[in-house]
Write a structure and sequence with these properties.
elongated, two-stranded parallel ribbon, 3 helices
């Protein structure tokens, strides 16, 4: 008794599935083939999204700022010590200890080798000033 009902349900199942997809094809939808290309376009301010065609889908998105880091967080100055990695804090403590101890190449008035790093420190300061001047000139239109 259950076998004939099961057989009838299995035979009718493909017919029901075909009946569900038939109205979609009658509405003028695509033939069921997927698009050949999906293109993602990032637009700048004032740009228009290109038109899609039958063979491709165009997905447009806009960016107010081209950088991922929000403007208020960029170049905010030196990072406080409590927000730095322990390796950076250890390197800072090491450098301060070198200068305080008057080790060579530290430009310190304390100790016998402290004066050897003064020329190096002067050259680094001069290079940093030149770099800042070059950056300031390149940002001015």
């Amino acid at each position: 008794m259950i076998r004939p009902l099961l057989f009838a349900a299995l035979v009718a199942l493909p017919a029901l599935a075909g009946a569900q997809t038939a109205p979609a094809a009658a509405d003028g939808a695509a033939s069921g083939t997927p698009p050949q290309r999906v293109r993602s376009v990032t637009l700048g301010v004032g740009q228009k999204c290109p038109q899609s065609s039958d063979t491709e889908i165009v997905i447009c998105s806009t960016l107010d700022q081209p950088y991922r880091i929000p403007k208020q967080f960029r170049d905010s100055g030196p990072i406080p010590a409590q927000n730095q990695a322990w390796g950076n804090r250890a390197a800072t403590v090491d450098q301060v200890s070198r200068v305080a101890g008057g080790l060579p190449d530290t430009c310190s008035p304390v100790g016998s080798g402290g004066q050897s790093g003064c020329a190096l420190a002067t050259n680094k300061q001069w290079a940093a000033e030149r770099r800042a001047q070059r950056d300031a000139e390149s940002t001015v239109p």
